[in-house]
Amino acid sequence: MTSAARTLARNTTGTVCGVLVLLAFAAVNTLAEQDDIGNRRARGRGSNSGDPCAIRDLKKSDIQGFRLNAPDGHRYLVNKDDEKKVPQLYIGENGTSNLRCITCTDIPGGPKAKRFKMQPRWHPSGHWIIAAVEREKYSPPPVLGWNKSFVAGMLQSGIWTDMYAISPDGREWHQLTNFQSNKKGVADGYTGPAMTTDGRTLVWSEIVDGNVMKYTFGKWNLIAANWEERNGVPRLTNARNITPPGMNWNEPANFQPDNERVLITGSPDKNARGMDQYLLNIRTGQLQNLTNTPTVWDEHGVSSPDGHKIIFMSAYPYRNDPKSSTVTGLKTEFMMIDEDGSNLVQLTHFREPGHPEYSPKANAAVPGWSGDGRSVTLSRLIFPGYDYWELSFEGACGNQRGR
Cα 104 from chain centroid? Predict the structure, then answer.
């Protein structure tokens, strides 16, 4: 999920927590005056300019959960809480809002229904869903670990999870990792993965050291591995550390169409709060900083289907407020840039009075493009919960192949 979920609390082996935890125990600062970035916005709602990236509409989603369309274009996946506030996975058919939960019952070989299921991704084959699943055994820290909101925030950040491959009907579960608490040299959870379009390479980030006295958000290694299937059973092989030198905090998003460059959030700085958006070439190791804002919180970038556009959450509109890029004072909106980092555009105004999406304590969280590049699902954090919005463009903003 987020570094917004990785800060300042740890167990004896160094598990980190983040913004979700801190916000549970600290007041969220009220709205500060926004710096005017209208001259950089370039696009506005209801524009008839013929620009495919002009915003047509922004409204609350009919389905309040994070939606991911299947590679076949006929199905979609929704990650949302059940009636017991446990995140589950649901499958729907395009054109309907009827959902079927595939994780709400105990399945032999799979985790119990009461365990959290998060961070879902479709494998490009469409045969599998990759998800982070709460482990049966892990070690929350004393005192804080008794608080359900704390534990939920940690789980949503990827701590205390394992990676599973799940069939879309929910009948098959295959554990891909074996993370553990309190074991030296073994990660305690992960975030990701990003997958190449052929599904043969996965990249994720795993926490290996939560010493927040040394690493503000903990130390995370970026791992690449091969995806293999034998007799219909998936597994990960040839795992290797591809962490850019000095980038102790990082999280992957998705691959560019060239299947070599992966979009990541990261920071080489000790406090990591000025994180940026990068493209990392996993073959050459070349690293390109797209945002270059060392004092601004930029996170959760996602490339469009054609790779030409990137949407991310950022404190950039509030950069004149010194607290806007801090854990307890975070203020973020969704922004969009071209793949070379140019043409910065503000897409939302969650913290601006007078806009329909305004809410005084809301923060942009995670975006997700539709397969045709015409719309984006946006998750918004109003602690301790989320709501979900749909932003539609005038045209295929994120899928302009051959332009």
Answer: 23
